[in-house]
Design goal:
mainly alpha, 6 helices, rod-shaped, single chain, 4% strand, two-stranded antiparallel ribbon, 77% helix
């Protein structure tokens, strides 16, 4: 190795550019750039290799930034379309639930009217049968009576036919 040639480590190149050492390593690996020499475990690169690495990383950074901008514009458009679709679905669900709510209210109203008409019918029947309730002792005695023998026999005959 010539002593008059300047060599640079990956860390020195990264510091010159102002980026992380791993990014320099990845660029070197992806572009098959071989080291000029080694100093223990440290890979050393000459002036030409350093210039190639710096130029390549800077151009790839500009290219990747443009790609990221295009990707973000594309992803923003995709996100907007997805959100529009979701919004349309939610509006349809709201309309469906509104119809169900209206149906439920109509059902409740008709049930209430039906119950009111039954209550009116029951009250009119109670008013008609007030004559029977005027003597409660007679009504309770009829309930407490045991069935006659004829009723018992007919029950047993009916049961064992």
């Amino acid at each position: 190795m010539n002593d008059n040639k300047q060599t640079y480590t990956m860390k020195q190149i990264a510091n010159l550019i102002g980026i992380d050492k791993t990014k320099v390593w990845r660029f070197i690996r992806d572009n098959n750039i071989h080291e000029y020499s080694k100093n223990g475990r440290a890979l050393l690169f000459n002036e030409q290799q350093k210039a190639r690495i710096i130029k390549g990383i800077k151009s790839s950074d500009v290219h990747s930034m443009n790609e990221r901008k295009n990707d973000s514009n594309l992803s923003d458009k995709e996100l907007i379309s997805v959100l529009k679709n979701e919004l349309e679905q939610k509006n349809k669900e709201i309309d469906r639930f509104q119809k169900l709510l209206e149906q439920q209210q109509q059902l409740n109203l008709s049930s209430q009217k039906l119950l009111e008409s039954k209550n009116d019918t029951t009250q009119s029947r109670e008013n008609d049968s007030k004559g029977d309730k005027s003597n409660p002792d007679i009504n309770t005695s009829k309930q407490n009576e045991k069935p006659s023998n004829e009723t018992r026999e007919s029950f047993w005959k009916w049961l064992f036919r």
